[in-house]
Amino acid sequence: MQTSDSVRFKYGELMAVASCFACLGRPLLLSRNEDPVAVKTRKALAIMGYLSRVNSMSSPREMLSDLLWSKAERTKAMQSLRQALRQLKTAEDEAGFDVVRTSTGHVRLDPETFSSDLMTVLTLLERGRADDFREAEGLWRGDFLAGFEDIDPEFSDWLQVERERVRSDVVTAAFKHLDQISTVDGGLQVEAGGRFLLKIDPALESAHRVLIRLYMKLGQRERAEQQFKACEREMRLHLDAEPDEETRSLFEENDNSDALPKAKNFEDVSSSITTNNDDEIRLPEISIVTTALSELSLLDARNLKDEIVAGLSSFRSYDLYQAEYFGDAKLPEATLVHGHDLGSYLLRFRHNERNGKIAIQYEDRADGRIIFNEIVDLGQWESIQAAASQTISRIHLFTTGKLRNTNNSAAFARWCQAEALMWDFDPQSDLKALQLLNELEERYSNFSMIFSAKAMINLKQLTHYPIENQEPGLAMDEILSLSEHAVFLDPWQPMNQRAYGWALMQSKMSDQARRAFLQAGRLNSVDPANLMSVAEGLALSGDVEEAKDKAQLAMSLVTTVPRVFFEYYSNILFAAEDYEASLQYIEKTSLKNMSGLTTRIAALICAGKEDEALEVLQRYNDRYASMVQNTGLGQQDPEEWGKQVNFFQDPKTRHNYDKGVDLVKRFFFGDRACF
């Protein structure tokens, strides 16, 4: 655990197994011989704790001073920071290491000499053997940075969030090995994993379930019942709650299946003892390997890597792993994780010292195949963000594109297939997507995007193409409730915020809608589809300049512009009163829906081309008349349809768009249209 050329930092719940100094979760700086080294103040140690958890282990000095001396004036806070850094330097001299690197503007930890028990725990959990779980259990000693809550209000706020993040990361890593109950080793691995999870949280019901299932599978009903009683006791003590009926039913499930204890291959029968609701959807895995980017002179290269990783993370569609947790000798092998049909990949970053360029290689772990290898010369790009967006887009399109193959029946693959159908903007495609989403909801009722997607589809059905001879779609308040539920489950998912924004828009709450769209844009600023949808939402809510900026960025991030983007851009330009440009873009679309047709007619009228608007309606009469008949639009109240199709919130823009709405109503609804 301790190498000859690194210093170890013990903090929070993470203390050395070999250490005899039980400090109740408080951090320690250890020397080469694992002897504790005194540091004068807690804030000095807090600096190391904070840096160990931020990107690149680096932070501006101003941020550190604001975090730890938030109530002091900037000058005094910076002075206090310098004193704390001197205290760390004194401790380093005693330990025999230089780990904290300082410059005029930044403070960072040297990754070559710094290590922590959190890194060790994550390495152990990546392997996930019985001995690894036991060792990790021994390292766990309470909350992250226990006793540091009161050193500064700003630091306390950060610490509260970071503790949850640490706990979530560790629990998720452990459960990766416990999805299926294997008894090949007599249940030692699963039992050790369950015990580790209960060390973290004695009231974690899902961990109790793992052990109950294991003991029932081993035929040890008495131990299973004892575990259930422990679950009851801990939940009552810590949560004032009772175990779910799902936990109680584990005994019945196994009692009714005599074949379970005799199964040769548990994977063949695992579905019979896996929960039927609220299971976690697995995601494609990307392991990130970084080589020779630690020098300070390579700051741009590290920033490029950070931008790419942050961009991939913002999709919330991947399980990302930092290679530092594996150790140089234990990098991920080029083999697919057993039973993982979503894809497992390596993303390698390497700096070429000779030409100063960065090599980025994306590999398929299933067979070691190089999917792409690009050499990035940052001097050829306008910004690091622009360079990063190219790599992010290539990874996202390749990885999710494979999952859109309908032969892949994994849950997340089914989601990708439903999402692709939704982008068709076609009533039949949406019906297929709804069928997939309903199937997913039966088992994965905590996967938030199911509900935002259903809200979006029902919103399109309500406003653009009601389906004839189908069950009535949801009412607007039900659609809003769906989108609210999605945000409740995951407020950090951009799609959920977008769906919420559209539902709020139709519910006449444009200010709240604008905030939701802005949040969606902040959560993922590298996905062109997200940016373009956000841009249209902002334009419809009246924030035209912000909408144009985001739309132009979205267009710059794609190599081939999807047709649906042209319709979005047309609405944005209509809101900007640039009707000629709006016409240029709307004419590039396939115009499969009445809203696109209405935008074209409205733009023609506002551009003084009403005769041409009538010609367009007459030229495409057969196509749109058939659309109206096939979608049941002709059965709708024309006045209600007219209100729903006009999303523009600015009074002037709404009035101008209504000119197109009125002409379309007159043409397709005839005498039923009221003017």
What does this structure look like?
This protein is about 55% helix and about 10% strand. By secondary structure, the protein is of the alpha/beta class. The chain has 5 domains: about 5-115, Winged helix-like DNA-binding domain superfamily/Winged helix DNA-binding domain (Arc Repressor Mutant, subunit A, Orthogonal Bundle), CATH 1.10.10.10; about 180-270; about 285-405, 3-Layer(aba) Sandwich (Rossmann fold), CATH 3.40.50.11830; about 405-510, Tetratricopeptide repeat domain (Serine Threonine Protein Phosphatase 5, Tetratricopeptide repeat); about 560-675, no CATH class. α12 crosses α13 and α18 runs antiparallel to α19 (about 530-540). The radius of gyration is 29 Å and the shape is globular. Mean pLDDT is about 80; it is low at about 1-10, about 10-25, about 255-280, about 325-330, about 335-340, about 465-470 and about 670-675.
Can you summarize this structure?
The protein is of the alpha/beta class and 675 residues long. The protein contains 27 helices and twelve strands. Helix 13 packs antiparallel against helix 14 (427-443).
Keywords summarizing the entry:
alpha/beta, 675 residues, four-stranded mixed beta sheet, Arc Repressor Mutant, subunit A, disordered N terminus, disordered C terminus, Rossmann fold, 5 domains, 12 strands, five-stranded mixed beta sheet
